[in-house]
Amino acid sequence: MPHRRVLLLALLTLATVGVATLLLVLSPAAPRAPHVLWWLFLVLLPLGLATVIFMRRGWAAMVCVAYGTIGLALDLATVVSILGGRDGSDLALALSLVSGSANFVLIVFGGRAFWADLERRGPQGSRPPNPPSPSSSLPD
């Protein structure tokens, strides 16, 4: 799969930023259920995608595009919220900028990898024509 190393690096960056976000930015006083969901989305999902990319599955590149799109939307919302004067710190802003950049790379190179995989697979070649049907060989 083309761009495999770039996708792996972006996914590992996202998992690392996810761990940093969960440990340094989110409040430990928050309820436990949202923390579990954030761990799944920010850490385990990128690691799972990296595993599938490492196994050279072509469909995983498109999943990376979808994950990167959702992540980039969340990062942009976080940056706008922090710059708009709401709660936030410089650390949260920096993590969102790094995460947003990695998500953008994931979208671009995931799309290119998926497209290249589709072109590589392509049609298997021409097939022989179907034999004529018996009704077409009857005289008029």
3D structure, described in words:
73% of the residues lie in helices and 0% in strands. It is mostly helical. The longest helix is centred in the C-terminal third of the chain and has 32 residues, at 90-121. The mean pLDDT is 86.
Tell me how many strands there are.
0
Count of domains: 1
Shape: elongated
Q: Helix and strand succession?
A: HHHH
Which segments are poorly predicted (pLDDT under 50) over 5 or more consecutive residues? none
- How far apart are the first and last residues' alpha carbons, in Å? 56 Å
Write the layout of secondary structure elements.
Layout: H1 4-25, H2 32-54, H3 59-83, H4 90-121
Report a brief summary of the structure.
The chain is mostly helical and 140 residues long. 73% of the residues lie in helices and 0% in strands.
What are the defining features of this structure?
single chain, 140 residues, 73% helix, elongated
